[in-house]
Design brief:
Number of helices: 13
CATH topology of the largest domain: Heat Shock Protein 90
Number of domains: 3
Shape: elongated
CATH class of the largest domain: Alpha Beta
Structural class: alpha+beta
Strand order of the largest sheet: 5-4-3-8-2-1-9-10
Largest sheet: 8 strands, mixed
Number of strands: 24
Length: 540
Amino acid sequence: MLLRAAQHYPTIHAAVLEAVQNACDPDVRAKEIWININQRDRSVTITDNGCGITEDQFYERLGTVCVQHRKGNEATGKYGIGLISPLGKCKRFFFTSCPSPLTAGYIEWRFECADIIASFEKPDIPARSMPDFGFQSGKQPQKWRSMMRLEEIDADPSVSKVDMQDLIRGILTQHGNKMRKYETSVSIRIVPLKGEPEVEEDIQAPRFHGEALDEYVTENGEAGKVVVRLFRSPMSTRGGFDQGVVFGQIGDDPRLLMKQVSAVLASASDGVAAKAIEALKSGVFEGEIIAEKITVHVSRQHFDPSVAVEGLAVAVSRWFAKVGRKAFDEARESRRDTKNVDRAAVSVGLIEQLLKGHPELIEVLKGRFKYGTVGEGHTKVPKTRIVGEIEGITAAKPQGNSGTTRTDRGESDRGTPRHERASHTPFIAVGPGNTRKIVVGSSIGFGVSFDTLEADVLWELDTERGLLTFNTTNQLWTAAELSSDLAVYQLQEFCILEVINMLKHGEPNQGTIYKFTADLEKSVVDWIVRGNSLRRKLGK
C-alpha cells in the first residue's frame, strides 16, 4: 500500500524534491535546508530548521497516506506522502524530528523498506527517543529540527543518480514560491563516485527581475480564472538558473516548467496555441501562468488530466493575441540588435589586433575618414569638434592567452588621459551601449553598424564617418545568421578586410564596389556556411 504511494517518486531526485517540499510547507517554514547526497557510501541526508513535527502529527500524517491510498484517492495523498517517498529506493531510511518551541525531545522513526513492502496492513514503524540531541543545546547540539536520512540507496543509476543543476532547477521550479515567501535558502552538497570532485551550491529562489508586462486576467468555464503574470527577461541574465515561465494552480505553490506542459497544451488546443507556446519557450519571458481549476499531479511532473488544461490553452492563446505577440516581437528585435553589436565588437576587436602588424593600413583609415568617435575616459574634446552623438561599444579586447574576449560596455578604469593621442583609432560596434561623441579630428577609427538598407546589398560604407553598415535583410547576411555565430563572425571579418583593402587602393566608388564584390560574397558565404557545417560533421 505504502509502496504504491511512494511510486509517485521513482528516483532519489524526486524523493529529495519531496523532502524539500515538506520543509517548505506552511506549518514548517524552514529558513534553511541542507541536502547531503553521498554517492560513494550511497546515503542521502536532508535536514531543515523549520518547526519540526510532534509524535501525534507523525502518526496522523502516516495514517492519512494509508487511509487515502486504501480508498484509491491518490490526489489527496500528497499531504503525508513525503514521509514515505524514499520507500523502494533504499534499504532503510530514518525520520527524526523535534517540534518547536522545544529544545529537547527528538524522536527517530526507522523504516525498514523490505518489511514495509511485505506488510499488507498498517506497518509497524519502530521509534526511539534521542535524549542527547538538543536543538542548539544539550550534549549533542543540532542545528536542525527535522532530518530524513536514507541508507544503502539503490545502486541502479537510473534511480540513484542526482545531477546538481537538475536538482537546483527542480527545487526552484517546484518550490520557488514558498522559498521566496519564507525566505528559505537551500545548501546542497553532492559527493559523486570516486574520481570525481565534490560539488556544493547554496541557492535562494530568485525573484523575477525583468521588465514587468501588464498582468492579464481572463476566465472561462473549463479553467476558471487564469492569471498571466509575466516579465520580459533581461538580456544580462546569461548563465545560472533560467527561471523561464512556470505554470500552476491559483492558491497552490508547486509549479511546472514550460517543458513539462508545452506538449499537453499544444495537444489540448489542437495547434491553436502553437505560436504562444513557441514564444513562451523562447526565453524572452519569465514569470508564472496560474489557473483556478488546473491541478498539479501529486508527482509534480505534470497536470492532472482534465478539461481545465483545454481552458488554460485557450487563455494562453488569448493572452498572446492581445499582449504577448507585440511584447515578443519587440523583445526578439531588441535581443537581435544587442547580439549583433556583441558579435561586431568581437570581429572589429580581432581586426584591430591584426592591423597592429600593418601600420600602413591604420594610416589608410586615418587618411580616409573625416569623423571619429570618443567615449567616457577620453580626454576633453573642444565643443567645436563635436558634431553629434552615437551609441556603441568599443572593440572586444583579447584577455591574456585564453583566447576569450571582453566587451567594454562600462567606463574605463584607466582614468582620463591628459592629452589626446594622435594615433588614437577607436574601433566600435554601433548599437545598444554607451553614448559616444562624433568628433572631427584625430580620433578616426572604424565602426560597424546594422540596419535595413533600401538597396539589396550586403553592406554600405559611410566614407565620412568610417561606418560600415550591414544589411540585416540581405539574403547573404540571413544565411550566415541562420547558420551560426561563427559564420557571422567570419562574414563580418571578411567584409571589413575587403573594405580596408579597397580603401588602400583608392577612393572607392560604391557602384563599382558592389558590382565587383557581389559574386565574390556569394561564394564566400557559401564556403563559410558549408565549410562550418562540414567541420561540425567531422567533429573539428
